[in-house]
């Protein structure tokens, strides 16, 4: 196992945390005093709140997490709007960088490893242009619930996520297979006029919703400016 070292004793960590919790000192002040960055102090505070003074003890081994905990934390971040810090607090994750690594692993379609097994995660598969359009339509129709699309079409998170982003930015042309003209032409032929029309209606609807939201924001900004 890899070992972790620190130049701060548990007493120093405890002192830093209690100073912050007293409300008399800011994070910036305490961070400068102990020669640490604010993220390190935030981690100490979170660990202390979760496990008391035991949470501030130096760990001699890397902490292990169950695969299902990793998956739930990642989905809370990607699907439920949790911040990195909120996820770390909820699941008692040692640092935000650990969570970032899990997110990168998940979005690349790879599986989480843990003692005793793996989490079940869908891997990517080959798709046609028509399938990609259908999957994007499904994801958008379900408020970008990517997990539903993953379960229904047996694809990876990274696939559906990237297709939706490409479609929103550049339309259906962005979903074409760029590896060769023959493949692209063949995929275009599989798309009916009705399907093309449905996609265009969907794009126009999303564009109108965006413009409506933009107008509301601009009106609110105008109101704020007039009050000044």
Write the element-wise H/E pattern from the N-terminal end onward. Answer: HHHHHHEEHHHHH
Distance between the termini: 60 Å
Low-pLDDT runs of 5+ residues are 1-5, 115-120, 180-186
Biggest sheet architecture: 2 strands, antiparallel
- Figure out the total of helices: 11
Structural class: mainly alpha
Compute the average pLDDT.
Answer: 76
**Number of self-contained structural domains:** 3
Number of strands: 2
Q: Would you write up a description of this structure?
A:
This protein is mainly α and 228 residues long. It folds into 3 domains: 47 residues; 52 residues, no CATH class; 93 residues, no CATH class. 64% of the residues lie in helices and 2% in strands. A two-stranded antiparallel ribbon has the order 1-2. Helix 2 crosses helix 3, helix 4 runs antiparallel to helix 5 and helix 4 packs across helix 6. It is flat, with a radius of gyration of 24 Å. The N terminus is likely disordered.
Short overview:
With 228 residues, the protein is mostly helical. It is 64% helix and 2% strand.
Write a concise keyword list for the protein shown above.
single chain, 228 residues, mainly alpha, 3 domains, two-stranded antiparallel ribbon, 2 strands, 2% strand, flat, disordered N terminus, Trp_repressor/repl_initiator, sequence-specific DNA binding, WH-like_DNA-bd_sf
Write the layout of secondary structure elements.
Blueprint: H1 10-21, H2 27-34, H3 38-51, H4 67-79, H5 84-91, H6 96-107, E1 113-114, E2 117-118, H7 129-141, H8 146-153, H9 157-170, H10 181-189, H11 193-227
Antiparallel strand pairs: 1-2
Helix pairs in contact: 1-2, 1-3, 2-3, 4-5, 4-6, 7-9
